[in-house]
Task: inverse folding
């Protein structure tokens, strides 16, 4: 088990070495021209970890071109924050990070959103495949639901559609901004799921027509109190929704509507890379650290509605 007192979580130089081992296993790579012909700049006149490319002559460190770039927060605190977010099944609040890392609340909040950006998956390959099964379900979640979940009208809530590949355990969730109908759901399913797959849903009417394009479409009727018929069940995806909602209500408590997609990415990342899929806390954190590359996130963009 990884301890929060390991050297890379308490020493900035050890943290840099760990990050370089993940991103540069064969030596420094220039983020500007991709050349590996580089020289490390040693001595007191240069900041730690500085490298110069011998081809384009530009200087860089392992954090250039990542969500950690230009941050004044020591690198070991970034690695500790990443580990804590990856090891906490339902997440960890910015207030808790603020207390544990010894940074301001505003800094902890911004760090957590940068780490969520690193958790965003670049994998857009279709789920399922021949012989595979994909569960699909929708849920509703609103800002006010955190305080009074049973009283908020559906029209005032965010529509979320999630997909879980039973074979790989991969989870993908989308904040659905369009109307939930057969045409719009079809666009999502045809893009995200291999049509040779079994499609497993509840009895919602908008799955029926798109479901005919898959190898098989099976559903359970919650209205008739049916939750499983052999292996036809949406219990896997309902379990994911349970973790997500308990985390949002119990840990985060408040969230901006424009940030919901990032929170979903965080829960998708942990669910996809969970112990049941053979991924422990340390490996999960390293996967998140590998995801920091090419994902600059400024404070202005963090507060924008670009991901809403």
Result:
């Amino acid at each position: 088990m990884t301890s929060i007192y390991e050297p890379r979580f308490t020493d900035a130089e050890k943290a840099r070495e760990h990050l370089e081992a993940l991103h540069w296993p064969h030596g420094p790579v220039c983020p500007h021209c991709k050349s590996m012909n580089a020289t490390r700049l040693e001595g007191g006149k240069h900041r730690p970890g500085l490298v110069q490319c011998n081809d384009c002559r530009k200087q860089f460190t392992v954090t250039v071109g990542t969500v950690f770039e230009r941050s004044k927060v020591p690198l070991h605190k970034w690695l500790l924050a990443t580990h804590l977010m990856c090891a906490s099944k339902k997440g960890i609040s910015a207030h808790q990070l603020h207390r544990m890392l010894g940074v301001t609340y505003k800094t902890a909040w911004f760090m957590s959103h940068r780490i969520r950006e690193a958790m965003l998956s670049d994998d857009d390959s279709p789920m399922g495949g021949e012989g595979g099964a994909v569960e699909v379900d929708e849920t509703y979640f609103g800002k006010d639901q955190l305080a009074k979940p049973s009283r908020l009208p559906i029209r005032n809530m965010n529509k979320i559609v999630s997909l879980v590949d039973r074979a790989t355990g991969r989870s993908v969730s989308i904040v659905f901004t369009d109307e939930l109908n057969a045409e719009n759901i079809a666009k999502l399913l045809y893009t995200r799921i291999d049509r040779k797959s079994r499609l497993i849903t509840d009895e919602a009417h908008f799955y029926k027509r798109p479901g005919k394009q898959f190898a098989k479409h099976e559903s359970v009727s919650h209205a008739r109190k049916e939750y499983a018929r052999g292996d036809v069940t949406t219990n896997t995806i309902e379990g994911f929704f349970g973790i997500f909602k308990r985390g949002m209500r119990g840990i985060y408590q408040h969230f901006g509507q424009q940030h919901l997609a990032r929170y979903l990415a965080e829960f998708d990342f942990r669910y996809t890379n969970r112990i049941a899929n053979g991924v422990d806390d340390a490996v999960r954190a390293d996967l998140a650290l590998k995801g920091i590359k090419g994902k600059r996130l400024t404070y202005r963009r963090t507060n924008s509605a670009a991901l809403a």
Summary: The chain has eleven helices and eight strands.
